[in-house]
Write a structure and sequence with these properties.
elongated; two-stranded antiparallel ribbon; 47% helix; mainly alpha; 125 residues; two-stranded antiparallel sheet
């Protein structure tokens, strides 16, 4: 999901649920002032959209990374029967590479909102 103006209005003005907008067009934002909350400016909303869109790739990377770590937890159980010590080390190394992905990556989103620019480690076989 790539954030748009309509997505961030509740984040910028969280106590006001009385607004409507057509086609994500700020000029059509109909704002009912509730709890003394004035209509957000176009710049406020654009800044929030940009902020969220800039951090979204890293959020997605961490979610996918955490999912992969969860799937490999079984290899870290103390009584897992490793065929060799090298096999055990390969899984330890793989999991370390996954944990280090946020430090070693510059994730981006493509035009479809899919994560790109990440070199995912290959699990041992």
């Amino acid at each position: 999901m790539i954030y748009e103006i309509r997505d961030v209005i509740p984040l910028v003005k969280s106590n006001n649920n009385y607004w409507t907008m057509t086609n994500n067009d700020y000029n059509t934002l109909d704002w009912k002032e509730i709890n003394y909350q004035s209509k957000p400016t176009h710049n406020e909303l654009i800044e929030k959209v940009n902020e969220l869109n800039n951090i979204k790739p890293m959020i997605l990377l961490r979610e996918k990374r955490d999912e992969l770590l969860d799937k490999t937890d079984k290899y870290m159980v103390s009584d897992f029967a490793y065929p060799t010590e090298q096999f055990k080390q390969d899984w330890l190394d793989y999991r370390e590479e996954l944990r280090n992905l946020p430090l070693n990556s510059s994730p981006q989103l493509d035009d479809n909102g899919e994560l790109i620019n990440v070199n995912w480690p290959i699990p041992p076989s």
